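Suppose you are handed a protein chain with no further information: no name, no annotation, nothing but its sequence. What can you learn? This example shows the usual starting point.
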Amino acid sequence: MFIFNTTFSVEKKTTSDWKAWMDRNYVPTMKDLVKDIRVELYEVMAMVDEESTNFSCQLHCKSPEELETINKYNSILVNNLSAKFGDKCLHFSSILKEVK
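A reasonable first move is to predict its three-dimensional structure. Written in structure tokens, the prediction is:
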């Protein structure tokens, strides 16, 4: 099992628009590309900032090939996100591999 995690730092006044963009663009695109993907969105509670909220979007997949697809299209989607929101929404991604 692999998790492609993207953490977003979103200005509080932009959160509603960002969430709508995720629901209309990011999540459906990823679900179309990788059929068995599980998408989970969390608010990060450990980091407190009065001006922004941090979110973790986790894409769970099973194979390195699926992970490669996610990695490729994540770059395209977050570039579109950056073009739309600029510095009101910052992000970074990491890849996790399940340890048994």
